[in-house]
Amino acid sequence: MTRAEFRTRLKGRRCYIGVDLGSTKDLTATVAIFPDDVGPGFDVLAQFFMPKENMHARVNRDGVPYDQWERGAFLIATPGPVTDYEFVRYHLHGWAAEFQVLEISYDPWNATDLVSRLLQDGLPMIPMRQGFASLTAPTKSLETAILSRRLRHDGHPILRWNIDNIVVELDAAGNYKLSKDLSTEKIDGAAALVNAIDRMDRHTDAPAEDPVLVTA
Questions:
Q1: pTM listed for this prediction
Q2: pLDDT of 206 higher than 50
């Protein structure tokens, strides 16, 4: 299935969106998940953003093909030295016009201005705290979906890279969450995916299965 065919198959379907803004000089991720009408599987659509001005320097410094990803439309490079969140806002409106967006989950850190504008626009914004208590259940759900092959996407290379970079952090009680501090590479798309899964799980009755936990 081509990317275009995958996207066409999603039109009009209900979805939950997770947003991870990161810092203004780094990757920003928006991830939409589309639950199956029957069964626990779901489709995933992702879009990433970063500032154009420092992109080529980061390609050379980090050895990560951001320029190729931009040419493939997997990444939107916004003009200037920092990510222009108006592009993110415009993009979310595009998804809202194309899909049945039920909720948009976001990390409140660094999000006040953008979220205020999106709320004024009428989009259904839901804050998602990033502590162990909030993130353990959807992180387990993500691991279960990956291990059981319930997660389907259009071959998005940045999302795949982010998922491959996942490292989890545990607390004394055995709760865990994705860790940007312990991960040596970017996991912004995975973090946005966890936020979206949390909203999906809250609207389903099926409990998450306990997966095999892998830590670094």
A1: 0.92
A2: no
